[in-house]
Structures are given as structure tokens and as C-alpha cells.
Amino acid sequence: MSQLNFQGIIPILITPFDAKGGIDFDSLQQLIEFNIAAGVHGLGIALGSEIFKLSDAERDQVLKVTVETVNGRVPVVMNTSAPGTDIAVSLSRRAQDLGADALMIYPMSFMPTGPESMLDLFDRLDAFVTLPIILQDVPQAPIGADAVRRIVLHASRTAAIKVETLPTVPQVSRMAAKVAEKLTVIGGAGGSYMIEEFRRGARGTMPFCSQPEDFVAVWNHLLDGNESTARVLFDDKIMAINRLAAQDGDIFYHVHKQILHRRGIIANAYVRSPTCSIDAITQREIDTLLDQFY
Amino acid sequence: MSQLNFQGIIPILITPFDAKGGIDFDSLQQLIEFNIAAGVHGLGIALGSEIFKLSDAERDQVLKVTVETVNGRVPVVMNTSAPGTDIAVSLSRRAQDLGADALMIYPMSFMPTGPESMLDLFDRLDAFVTLPIILQDVPQAPIGADAVRRIVLHASRTAAIKVETLPTVPQVSRMAAKVAEKLTVIGGAGGSYMIEEFRRGARGTMPFCSQPEDFVAVWNHLLDGNESTARVLFDDKIMAINRLAAQDGDIFYHVHKQILHRRGIIANAYVRSPTCSIDAITQREIDTLLDQFY
Amino acid sequence: MSQLNFQGIIPILITPFDAKGGIDFDSLQQLIEFNIAAGVHGLGIALGSEIFKLSDAERDQVLKVTVETVNGRVPVVMNTSAPGTDIAVSLSRRAQDLGADALMIYPMSFMPTGPESMLDLFDRLDAFVTLPIILQDVPQAPIGADAVRRIVLHASRTAAIKVETLPTVPQVSRMAAKVAEKLTVIGGAGGSYMIEEFRRGARGTMPFCSQPEDFVAVWNHLLDGNESTARVLFDDKIMAINRLAAQDGDIFYHVHKQILHRRGIIANAYVRSPTCSIDAITQREIDTLLDQFY
Amino acid sequence: MSQLNFQGIIPILITPFDAKGGIDFDSLQQLIEFNIAAGVHGLGIALGSEIFKLSDAERDQVLKVTVETVNGRVPVVMNTSAPGTDIAVSLSRRAQDLGADALMIYPMSFMPTGPESMLDLFDRLDAFVTLPIILQDVPQAPIGADAVRRIVLHASRTAAIKVETLPTVPQVSRMAAKVAEKLTVIGGAGGSYMIEEFRRGARGTMPFCSQPEDFVAVWNHLLDGNESTARVLFDDKIMAINRLAAQDGDIFYHVHKQILHRRGIIANAYVRSPTCSIDAITQREIDTLLDQFY
């Protein structure tokens, strides 16, 4: 991977499970092929992968299978955030050893230590890891543009900032104003404002992996300056799904897994616990929408 | 342990580290003896132990050494909260196998699934674990008294509710009104309002482990009805320390480890990263206060 | 108003200002006629009216002109929330004297006094006010379903609960389960999930007032059981606008006022300070979307 | 007032009410004399005055009586924050006309407009008001040090920053590092960390007005370098009261009013609604503590 620019559509892979909750690696491989065939620019393993519900051994397996299946065709990003610096370093070394092309990290902490506690993590990573790093600004651990700037000036290996603090549109603007000359700004909110973020300087987005062909098409229209074509496709396919996926708790996992199941990419739409339950009304709403598309 | 009532003073053990951040088990053993000698009614391994900065192997080792050292003299409580239900079950089984006397769990989640997602965890635990459970209400994952009641009616093995949502005094009152006939209510805030919580129905507290003799003395005065004696001791020794320990981020780790180091109980006051840094002014403030007492 | 059921589409009137920020009452009258002609089932003066930027005299004038213009054709709801109980009572009496048909109140407080401090307010209102009350559950002062139930059992004059805590869909479900036999549940989020809320028991919504004919049409389709027709109209017109209106800070004021200005209903789209600024990119985005519709 | 430096002890006056909730101006005058006699360096009318429960006419009366009673002996600070810029300007002009020596303002808003929306307010104030301004950083509307710096560079009339975001000690440090050369940094938390804040550059604090002689004494000891004497007095008198006053909701109003009533300064300890109720246990706790001192 000589040109790691982290631009474009970098879907986060869901983790496919079987009906008993075990990882289904065949489905994972199919999912990866499906996304690469759609033209994505990278793939990620992160919160959208229910990564925090995987054991350490499972994380390793998922990354290993992903790297082997991808086989260098696109960069693979691995989230190695952890509430302890030692653990984050250990996860990061492991990710590098297993072949990840970049790390994605947010200032995770159970205690109030502030985003700048990441400086210590980045210093320690220097001894062991050579991969570029994508900073993450998540609602559970927000980082303002001023703090990102301080981190970047300290840790030059930082390659991108992934925005997730809501609303993401002005947050992208603030990041672009402060750090765009040093970092790639990546949009958030599952792509729900990808066109607006693009206009303000975002140069990538990390959506779920259930509709990669639509995201790639919207992206290419944006690059080509065809905003109105991008918008029609976005509204029809992407926004209708994202709106449903945001209506309650973490039902986004269920919605995107059900899409992939219906499209024949994964064998089962199982979501690991804890997750909100899908009652009959909600399931009917999902079915009705998916009937339109797939 | 036939009488697991979780009443009284149940300090959370800090994890002693050496100067390089490795676990110092000799210090851990001394710390346990120090607390038992002071008359504590139980010991816990939890957030105050920096448990979230320990690897899985380290968690096991800390629990194993603790159980062996305690050797049945008081009950040992192990926090087995995890963001995935499978992981929490796995940690809980492991804790039971290693000899813990009770589990402490809060509704940890990176995604909005609500406190009632714990019902599923408790159902699954039934298949593998027979230990009593202490529910935790923490600021990062608050549970209201109505939700606690629903959980308890569902999962009868729940033995206690540990309150940490600030301010804890009215939260103890609300819990006592809703669930005191079924659960022991345990106070929070590092014991900073232990007398007020006691008056409202709390029957235990889980402070740091650096001043166990003072906490036990206050507790015994409360049981004996000597509130004013309890108050003088509390104000002089406990509140002065707790006030300092609350003045910035997570400096409580540093303050309590420095007390234990100064008292000759642990060899080093090292706190694992991430943690807020202690500048020269703060260190002088810690030194000045500790000079008064130790 | 013999049948105050607070069902259906009850838009919140924006307050039209002239270019200097003074209230434009001619535009207000036109806005009211425009909404009544569209078939709305009620009209409200509330947060969507920038009510908190109006002086007391201006509030009175806006309500007076609204009541006179409406002239009994639909019920008029007035928000009389205030951080002091005396002030809320005074605003409520004034609203009743000026002819409002119902009050809308949320547990506003600068200090942590809890939703049940509303009980005292409701008791005091009994001495002076006979109007029905719509409780509001807003993000700045959320009320859970259990607390709403306690309030309703105490204050039988409560007629409805307006949900605004995000996400609103499960909040509507919780309210419907706890209090639907006593209260009308009204959906929130500017109508962005009005179809989903309806399915879960909501019997009204209070959107902005810029597209009343579309909201009424969707509502009527829902009542007639034509969900798919409702959905097409909703997605095309309402959701596209609401999505834009949510992308940054409080730009919803600007978006809806610009729609009304473009449609010839109000003379000026001025929003009072403080409000987020609309930069050139955002203005172009608004223009592009409105060009499609109006 | 030629030397408005806003340094030292500037208590916030409670608003004394009679048993029916009307303002008791005789008690207010006594309260002012009591504080001036204690040597305070200024007096304020703000959140601690329940200002948000006063009608506009009552605010005017309180300020008028305060200015007349103070009669230039110390500066009088008036909080004129409001959710609308026009209202804040109007309140500020009125405060200047009535003789206030400074304004205190925080970025109050019901909608997400950000602290920098204050720039517009400050620009508009320039046309009407010549008073210096104390910025407020409150939990309900926090301002980071970077934002304060931007505001101060824009609005040179800003004279001080009052810190209230918890924990205040590191927030004082951040403010001192960013803006101490331009602004006086004033500590918060009702003075609970006044010694620690002083060490980090705070040059004043705004406590409640029930123990002014103790605050002044602590302050003078700090200025004289007698920190340990300051500490003993602080722990004995101030911290014991502040700890009790923080144990539940807004009981600080009740605690400080009861102190003043017991000391014979005000005729009644009435707190306006909404406020949390004081149950029998809490009242006994207040009585027991006050019996020690007064």
C-alpha cells in the first residue's frame, strides 16, 4: 500500500454471525468480495463491526481473514482503541503484525482524562508501530478541532480525522478549517450527510457495508461534479435506509445485516447482545422498505 | 461464604504497579492484609482497580492472588462488566472459577441499548454462574430506580444495587424507596456522603482502600448510633482526602496510591496511562495534605 | 372549543420578523390563514416560534393576534414554560386571558429540581387556570414515562404528552405503553418520524408551519390506511426538508422561514440572534432544495 | 468605581423572600450591610439570587435597592444573560441605567448556537452599554479556553472569566494559560476549591453570601501567604457547609438562606418554586451542622 490516502468510500465491515452467534467466516469473505467488486476504496473493522463484542481471539481472526481475503486490493483499517494505553498499544502491534494498513483510534477512557491523553499513546506507539493513524472523534469521546490540531502537531503520523460528533456537517467545517492541510477529513453519521460534508472538505466517508455500490456511485458523481445526480441516488437509496436505521437505539446493526442477508451476501442477520430488540412493528417497517429495493 | 450480605465497608483494591507499570503482586498481598487487618467487610476489584487497563490475563492473576490471599476471611467482589454479553458471561464464569464470591456488573454498552438489555445478560448467566450479583449504577451508564426494580423482579439473584449516579444521596433515597426490601443499597462517591447515605438506607459503601481503618471506624460509630463521633473522624480524615481526590480528572488514583505508598503498604504509586498528569502544584498539594496524616 | 383532543397536525407558528427584527404581524396573519386553509387541526406558539427571544409584551401581542386571526377555527396552544413557577403561572394566566385554548409546559429549570417539581406548578395553576395542559418532554428537560405517569395521576388536567427526547420513536412507544389510556401522545422531531410514531400510538405531531398541506395530506393518508402513499409524499417533500433543517445548529429556523418567504407567505426570513450563521455553501444548499419544490 | 478589577470575594446575594414568596427588601438591605461589614470586594446578583425566578420588575427592584444600599462602597455585578440577544441587550441597558458597575453574561441559548454567538451580543452591546463584562462559563453553557480567547480578542471590554465548568481547578488552569494576561480569572463551585484555584491564577471567587467574613478571612490569608491558616478556617467553616449544600439538587439555596436566617440577617428562609423539597432527614442534617456554628 504505497498510497494510503484514506479517501473515498471505506465501508466498515459488519461481523457476520451464525444463528448461535459464532463468527461466520464464509459470509465475511463473501462480504469483502461484494464490497471490493463494488469499487470501495478501503475497508474497516470498527464499532460498526460490533468489535467491542468480540473476544481478543475473534478480533484477530476477523482481521486475519479480512487481510487475507482483501489481499492488498484496498487498504484495511483496524480500530484498536482501548481504555488502557498498554492494551491499545498491544492491539495496535497485533493489528500491524496481522497486516492492517492503518489504525483507527479514539480517546477511549472510562475516566475523565481528556483527548490529550492520546499524546502518550501516540508516543508509545512510535516504538512499535509504523502504520498511519486515523483519529476518531466519537460522541462517547469527542475531540474538538483545537485538540485535534494539538495532537497532529505532536504526532505527525496522524493521517486523517474521522468526524462523528453530531451534527457532523459543521464539525467537518471546523476540522477542515483547522487541520485540512495536514489531515484528510473523513465524514461520519453513516454517510447521512456525505454530500454536504464533501462540499466542506471531507474527502471520504465510512458507511456501513450493505450498499457499497450506491455509495461508490454517489462518490464518483461528486468527484465528477454531478451533484444533482448524486443527490437523487443518495435520497432514493441511502437516505431512506439511514433514516430507518437511526430511528431507535442500535437498530442500524439489524437493518444493515438484514439488507446483506436479503441480498444473499451473508447467511444470517444475527446481532450479538446487548442490542435493542426489534418488535413486530419495527420488523414490518424494515421489511417494507427492503421490499422496495432488494 | 454463607452470609453474603454485602454490608459494611467493602474497599476497592487499587492495582499496585512497579515503576515500569507491571503488576506488583507482593504489594497487592500487603494491601489485602492491611485492609483485612483494618476490619473491612469485603474487598472488590473494579473501576478503582484500573481494571479496564488490565489485560485479560492480568485480571485473572489479580483475582487469583486476591482470592488466595483473602482465603475466605471476607467476600471478594469482582467487576465483570463488558460491552458484549458474551464477554461479560465469559468474564463472569472465569471469576466464579477463580473463586470470587460475587459479581458486580453495570449496563456497559458502546451503543444505546438501555439498562434493560441487562435482562438478557442475567438470563444467560443463569446457565453458568451461581454467584450473587451487585448491580452498578454508574454515571457512564445510569440506571434509574424504576429500571432497577424491573431488573430485580426479573433476575432474583441480584443482591445489591451500588449507586454512583451523582448526587448519590437522593439516588440512595430513590433506590431505598423502590427496592430496599429486595436489595442491599450500597452508597457511592468514594464514601464522600457515607453518613448521609446511611441515614437514607444505604447499608454499605465501597471506598478506595487507602484508609480502611478510618472507614471501618466511621461505620462502627454509625452502627452504634454515635453519629457525631463518626462525623468528626469523617471530616478530619476522609473528607479532606476525598475533596483533594476529586479536584481534577482521575487524580483519585494518584492520591490514594500515594497514601498507600507513604504508609508503606505498596512499593510504588504508579498509575497506568491514560491518566491525567500531576503537575508540580498538584503534587505539592497532595504532599501537604498527606504530611498532616501520615 | 368543545372538542379539544389535540390530535392531528398542529404546526408551531414561526414568528415573522421584518428586516430590523421587529414582529411583522401582517405576515403572521397571512401565515395563520395559510395554515388553516391547509387544513391543520391546531396551531401552537412555542420554541419553534423563537418564543424565548420575545419580550413579555411581544409574547402577548403574538398570542393576541393569533387568537383573533384564528377566531375559533382551530385550537391555539401556548407554551408558558418558565424557569420560575410564579412566572409560569403568570404566563399561563395571561395566556388564558388572551384566549389560548391550551397550555404547553415542560419542566424548565436552571437548577436540578427534577420533572416532579412540576407537581407544584400544576397545583398552583389550579387556582387560576382552567385550560388543559400538554406536557412537553424536551432534550433540555427530559421526562421519562414513569415520571409522566406520576404527574398525570396527580394532575388530571394534563391532556397530552409531547415527546421530544431523541430518538422519539421508542420514546413514543414507552409513553403509549404507560399513559396512552390517559393522555394523547404527540410525536416530535419536527415530524421526521411521524409515520413510525403514528404506528406506535402517537395521535398528533407539531411540525414547523412551512408545509402544512403536505403534513395534512400525510396525516389523512395515515388515517385512511394508505401508508405507502403517505410514505412517498413524506419522503419527497417533508423528509428532504427536515434532513437539511437538521444539518447544523438551529438552521431549521432559517430553512422554514426561507420556505415561507419563497412561497409568498411572510415578507422576510429574518431569524433573531442568537442563531447560527448561514454561510454561502449552506445558503446554496437551501436554495437548491427549495428550487425543486417552490 | 475607578478600579473595577473584580478581584477578591464577590458574594452573590440571595434574594430574601417573605413567607408568601414576596421580596423582602428590608432583609435584602440588612444582607448587603452584613456583607459589606465583612469586607467583601464586590456583590453580585445572579443565579445564586434565583434571578431566573424573578419577574422583570422584580429584577429591577432588587438591583435598584442593591445599588442604593451599596452606595458605591463596592462594585455591583448584575447577571443579564438571556436566551435572546435583544432581551440580553435590553436587560443590560436597564442594569446600566439602574447603576450596576459590571455585567455578567453566559452564552445562554435554548438552541445549539455555540459560545461564539456571544460575539453578536457583544457587538450590539457596544452601541448602548459601557460597562465591563464578566464572561461566565457555566455547566449549562460551557465555554472552553480557546473560545474565551476568541471572544476576548473580539470584545476587548471583557474584563473577567468566571469559571463554573466542573471540575473547576483544571478549568482555571486552562483559562489562566490562555487568557490570564487579558482577563481576571474568577473561580467557581461556590468557593469549594478557592485555595486551589488561587494557586493556579484565579484572583477572585463568587460564593454565596451567608459566610462572608470567613471567605474574606481565607482570602486575606491567601494574599498574605498564610496558606495553612487559610486551610484550617476553610475546612472548618466553609467546606463543611459547601459539602452539605451539594448533597442534593438545589438545596444550596435552602442551606444558605437558613444560615442567614439563623444568623438574624434575613427574616425568612423561603426558596421560590421550583426547588427540591427538604425532607425531615435533610432538615435535621442542616440543623445539626448549623448548631455547631451559629
Outline the fold blueprint:
Four copies of one chain form a homotetramer.
Chain A (H helix, E strand, L loop, with lengths): L7 E2 L15 H13 L5 E3 L10 H15 L5 E4 L5 H13 L4 E4 L12 H9 L6 E5 L7 H10 L3 E6 L4 H12 L4 E3 L7 H6 L4 E2 L6 H12 L3 H19 L5 H12 L17 H14 L1
Helix pairs in contact in A: 1-2, 3-4, 5-6, 8-9, 9-10, 9-11
Q: What report would you give on this structure?
A:
- Four copies of one chain form a homotetramer.
- Chain A is of the alpha/beta class and 294 residues long.
- In chain A, 46% of the residues lie in helices and 10% in strands.
- The first copy, chain A, has eleven helices and eight strands.
- In chain A, helix 5 runs parallel beside helix 6 and helix 9 (227-245) packs antiparallel against helix 11.
- The model of chain A has no long low-confidence stretch (mean pLDDT 94).
- Chains A, B, C, D: It comes from Yoonia sediminilitoris.
- Chains A, B, C, D: Belongs to the DapA family.
- Chains A, B, C, D: InterPro entries: Aldolase_TIM (IPR013785), DapA-like (IPR002220).
Can I get a quick summary?
The structure is a homotetramer of 294-residue chains. Chain A is an alpha/beta fold.
Oligomer: homotetramer
Shape of chain A: globular
CATH class (first level) name of chain A: Alpha Beta
Per DSSP E runs of 2 or more residues, the count of β-strands of chain A stands at 8
Radius of gyration of chain A: 18 Å
Helix content of chain A: 40-55%
CATH topology of chain A: TIM Barrel
| Proportion in β-strands of chain A | 5-15%
Largest sheet of chain A: 6 strands, parallel
| Most extensive chain-chain interface | A-B, 34 and 34 residues
CATH-scheme architecture of chain A: Alpha-Beta Barrel
Which stretches of chain A are poorly predicted, pLDDT < 50 over at least 5 residues? none
Q: Order of SSEs of chain A, N→C?
A: EHEHEHEHEHEHEHEHHHH
